[in-house]
Amino acid sequence: MDFDYTAAAELFIAKRSGGPRGPLGYRRFASAAEAIRFAVEELPGARMLGAFMQVGDLRFDAEGIRSLYADEAYPLQRAEGAQATGGLTQKPVRR
Q1: If we measure between CA atoms, which residue out of 54, 50, 52, 39 comes closest to residue 86?
Q2: Among residues 49, 78, 75, 43, which one has the least CA distance to residue 61?
Q3: I need a surface site. Which of 23, 33, 77, 93 has the fewest CB within 10 A?
Q4: Is residue 46 part of a domain?
Q5: Domain encompassing residue 20
């Protein structure tokens, strides 16, 4: 996908209370790259799960945001040790 990381973006973040129909937090960013960095590096993992980003007519859920962050075309420097897991702990695999 040819994604424009310089396009303005809106980030909608589920608030802790209110359940699935509760109010959303809202932040506008000058670039999608900044919104992606904020979502992946600064949002706690549980809040990232309910987040979505709107860039023009395109909408990305938490998984989509993390995949844009992990993409080699992502233009910003990633935080040291940052992973595209949005702060979530990897579940161990039982064998």
Answers
A1: 39
A2: 49
A3: 93
A4: yes
A5: 9-70
| Residue 31: DSSP 8-state | S
pLDDT at 4: 96
Helix (H, G, I), strand (E, B) or coil at 92: coil
Do the Cβ atoms of 13 and 43 come closer than 8 Å?
Answer: yes
Q: Say if 19 falls within a structural domain.
A: yes
- Residue among 55, 56, 57, 77 at smallest CA distance from 65: 55
Q: What is the mean pLDDT of each run of 10 residues along the chain (95 residues)?
A: 93 71 81 96 84 96 95 92 50 48
Distance CA 54, CA 27 (A): 11
pLDDT of residue 23: 60
